[in-house]
Structures are given as structure tokens and as C-alpha cells.
TrEMBL record, chains A, B:
Protein's UniProt keywords contain Lyase: yes
Keyword terms of this UniProt record: Lyase
Protein name: Putative hydro-lyase IN07_08960
Xref: SUPFAM superfamilies: PSTPO5379-like
Record-linked NCBIfam families: PRK05463.1 (NF003969)
EC id: 4.2.1.-
Keyword tRNA-binding: no
UniProt record similarity statement: Belongs to the D-glutamate cyclase family.
InterPro entries per UniProt: D-Glu_cyclase, Putative_hydro-lyase, UPF0317
The organism of origin for this protein: Modestobacter caceresii
Molecular function as annotated in GO: lyase activity
Signal peptide location: none
Length: 261, 261
């Protein structure tokens, strides 16, 4: 039996709730997907301030009340069960990758839903900009940079970027399209030189897969939603839950809501 | 001797620090001015979340570390002395309007700098849209509405809007110009009908001055930075400091930084 991604967000979440653990790319196309970070109340101030101070890598789409597993981005969803796969962190170390975190959820937890570049990839394709990682069926390449985020309380860490090779004559289009979507990372943070960001070898990403460039492509770098996971690794809160890379939260919100005029 | 507003932000702040207590409109033109809200650490989570959940009325430009009176928006400034006039609130009641709050500042306080419509008024004028309150030398008209903000912890209250009469053929221009400036309240929240917002009489604003319309003008309503002051009045934290209406914090940041492509 071939697995067909659900077109409807609620149906997608129901599949993941039932235990299906696959990357969410291609599910409920046209609907915004979100990164998830869950932290104890004691660390929530630091995370909320980290997002406020670093809106390009950490564009906050919603923040829950302590203990709540509901979000305005999908009122019927349950954040404890509806992602395809989670990561559980203790003292900054990855300790588990379950498909459900209902047994770990307490009244002390605050959930942060963070914009994801899947939204702007759709917009790039709509504008005629090829997206090489999609063409090649790979996760996007992501790199730690030599740029530090602005710290917030106990949270600090490097800016993480995603890289997409873009044909030189379409770089301006890619900038314009993504600049209109600040809630999903916005315009690129750098175009052209990996070395300027402290990236030694594009073929060896820190997260995701290597993606091949075509002749005439230029590397374009966007702030990446993995940045808060890098901050968790660097800052070591006692407990955290995140989504597993590529296994995002599917919201009910159309991508178009986050496109500005 | 005629008082001439300083063109330079640092010079403007120096005048206010020296005790000059005048509205800041027209000072350091082209530089962003900001609303100020200062709250004890215990209430800072509620305020930060209130801003995250209500970005149109409460666009957060910077949030300080507890105890700090410094901001990235003007590294040389002192938030305790550099505004022309402050308001001091206890249990939601206005108790004082000093020109300096150095003696009230403690290590427990967190300051929130919030975008201000002065920035988009400049952009409207640049685009040929008349701004009646400036023409008439009055503070803008502001109204409590029947729309509730999305609550955050203990903070809740009504959306407050500012109203500017705009000639009918320029409403589209006004929408486009302000939509590009989400950090200073962005696009209008309503055009045309005061009654739809629960506003009984445009001639009797809740804050600011009445502003007269010209023939053919349409009332246009924008989310307003007085919204957090209304929330303080409704939610009654034990202590708060804000700017006095019209007596804003002058930053070093050019308005253009907050204009999107």
C-alpha cells in the first residue's frame, strides 16, 4: 500500500496521532507547519525573550499558557500527540525520540510554535524559483554559523541557517518572495559566501542532508528554526521537548496568512 | 526664546534628561519613537506574552533584562531619565507624572519598548496622505473599542485604536503604506464604521484630542500603543511606569528600518 499524504490538516494530524512517524513535508500542502519547543515555566521567560530578540531564526507564531496543549493555530489539535515524532532533551542532551509525549506533559510546561521554512518553499516554487532539496528528495542543508544570537537570560547559542542553491538570475526573486514572509524567517541573512558565516564545507551540513547545486547556482542562507534546538544544546535546560527535524506540527493556518502585501 | 526641536536623537534625549517636558512629536524627525511600559519581573512574563499575542497594538521593539535601563534602540540612552515625561501607576491607578524615574528604578524592573504611530505618520505624509491631527496641531484621537485583546496570564483589556480621517481616494494608499510597517502597528484594523468598533461618538475620544474631518474623509482606525496602558488600568499590577501620552522615547533607529519591502 502506498502512503498518500493527507491534504487536510486535521486528517494529517489524525494520522500522526495514530502513530504514523514520517516527515511532514508534503502533508496538508498550503497549510503552515511549525517548529515546536516545550520548556518548563521557569525557562519560558528566557525562551519568549530569546524569540523576541531573534525574530528571524525564532519567529513565534503562538505561545501557550502553562500546562495547555492547545494552540490557536489549530484549535482541535493536541500538541502532546499530533506531531509525527518528538525529541526529548534532558540537560541539553537528546534522550529519546518518541511519537507521543502525553506521559511527559505536566502543568508546568509552556509550548512555543515557531514558523518553518516549508511555508516559504511553497512561495518560492509558486514564483518559479527551483528548490533543490525538494527536487532531490532530501531534507534541506542546515549549518551552525559563527554568528551568535542575541542572548536572553540563560539562553544563548549560534545562529543556525538553512541553505538553498538558487540560480543567480533568480536570487532577487527569492529575496523578494521570502522578505514578504517574516513570520517564516523572512529574507535571507546572507547570499554567496559560506566562509563569511564560518561554514567550512557546504557538503557537510550540521543538520539535514547535503544538497547539490546546479551550474550557475548561488548559495542563499536563511535563518533556521533549528536555532532554538542549538540554543537548548548550548544552554542545557533541565528538560525540553521539541519536534524531531522534519517532523513538524501541521496547523490549520493557510500559508497565505503569513504573506505580507 | 522659541523652542526648536532637536534634529538629532541624542540631543533630543539630552534636552528631556535636563528636564524639558514637552510632547516629543517633531523631535529628531525620521527617527523611531517608542511607547514605554515598565513592570516588575513578576508581571513581565504576562506583558511579554501579551505583546506576542497582540502584535498589532503591542509591537515589541525591545525588551530589557531585569534591572537594566539600557536598550539596543539607543545604546547611550538612560530609560530612567531620557523621556520628557513619565506616568507612575500603583494598583492600576495613575499616581504621578514625573519627568524622571531614577529614584523609582529597581533591579526588579523590566522595560518594554513598543512601536509608535509617529513612524507611520511620516510615511503617510511622504506618500501624499494628509494627517489631519498634524495639520490641526492636536494629539491623535484614541478610543477604547468593544474588541478584547487576547489575554495573557493576568493581563487583559480592550483594544485601543487611533483614528485618522483619510480622504476616500487615499484610503488604499494609507492601507498599503502602513501595512508595510508592522513594527509600528501595521495596516488599519477597521475602515469606515465607528459603531462597528463600539465607538459611539468620534468627537469624544477616550484619549488624546478630537480631530476634525474634512469633506470626503473616511475614518480609518489603527491599533494603538495606548492598548497596554488600558490593560494596566484593567488588570491592576501593583506597580508600573509608562511614558506620558505623546511624551515618547526617541530612539536612534531610522524609521526606514521598520519599513518592509
Amino acid at each position: 500500500m502506498t502512503l498518500v499524504p493527507a491534504a487536510d490538516p486535521a486528517a494529517a494530524r489524525a494520522s500522526f496521532r495514530a502513530g504514523l512517524a514520517v516527515p511532514s513535508s508534503g502533508w496538508a500542502p498550503g497549510h503552515t507547519q511549525a517548529n515546536l519547543v516545550v520548556l518548563p515555566r521557569d525557562w519560558a521567560w528566557d525562551m519568549l525573550l530569546f524569540g523576541q530578540r531573534n525574530p528571524q531564526p525564532v519567529p513565534l507564531l503562538d505561545v501557550t499558557d502553562a500546562g495547555s496543549y492547545r494552540t490557536v493555530l489549530a484549535p482541535d489539535a493536541d500538541l502532546r500527540t499530533d506531531l509525527p515524532r518528538y525529541r526529548v532533551w534532558r540537560d541539553g542532551e537528546l534522550v529519546d525520540e518518541p511519537t507521543d509525549v502525553a506521559d511527559l506533559w505536566t502543568d508546568d510546561l509552556v509550548a512555543f510554535l515557531i514558523g518553518c521554512s516549508f511555508s516559504f518553499e511553497t512561495a518560492l516554487l509558486d514564483a518559479g524559483v527551483p528548490v533543490r532539496n525538494i527536487e532531490q528528495g532530501r531534507n534541506v542543508s542546515m549549518y551552525r554559523t559563527n554568528r551568535e544570537c542575541r542572548p536572553a537570560g540563560r539562553l544563548s547559542g549560534p545562529l543556525v541557517v538553512s541553505m538553498r542553491p538558487v540560480p543567480g538570475h533568480l536570487v532577487a526573486t527569492a529575496v523578494q518572495v521570502t522578505a514578504r514572509m517574516p513570520a517564516v524567517h523572512g529574507a535571507p541573512v546572507h547570499v554567496g559566501s559560506p566562509a563569511a558565516l564560518g561554514i567550512a564545507d557546504l557538503a557537510r551540513p550540521d543538520f539535514g542532508d547535503p544538497v547539490e547545486s546546479a551550474a550557475g547556482d548561488v548559495p542563499v542562507f536563511w535563518a533556521c528554526g533549528v536555532t532554538p534546538q542549538a540554543a537548548l544544546m548550548a544552554s542545557r535546560p533541565p528538560f525540553a521537548i521539541t519536534h524531531a527535524p522534519g517532523h513538524m506540527f501541521v496547523t490549520d493556518v493557510p500559508d497565505a496568512v503569513y504573506r505580507q502585501p
